[in-house]
Amino acid sequence: MKFKILTFVKSLFTGKNKKRNIWIAIVAIILIFIMFSFLAPKDNKASIQTGVATKQNIQETVLSTGQVVSSTDLALSFQGSGVVKNISVKEGDKVKEGKVLASLDTSSAMASLTSARGSLAQAKANYDKLLAGATISDINSGNIVMQSRVVGLDGAYNDALNHLSDVNLKVYNALAAVTTLQNTYFTGFDQSARDGKIQIQSAATSIDSALNKAKASRVQSDIDSALSTAVYSLNSISSALKTIRDTLDETYYYSKVPDSEKATIDGHRVYINTALSTVTNDQQAISSARILLLQSRPEIDLAKAQILSAQGQVDAAQVLLNNLIIKAPTSGTITQIDIKVGEQATATKEVMILQDVGNLYAEADVSEANIASLQLGQSIDYTLDALGSDLHFAGTILTINPSSTVISGVVNYLVKGSLDNIPNIKPGMTVNMTILVAKKDNVLAVPSTAVINKNNKQYIKVIDNSKNKAYHEVEVKTGLRADGGLIEIMSGLVEGQEIVIYMKSK
Question: Which of 249, 295, 423, 440 is the most exposed place for a label (fewest CB within 10 A)?
Answer without folding.
Answer: 423
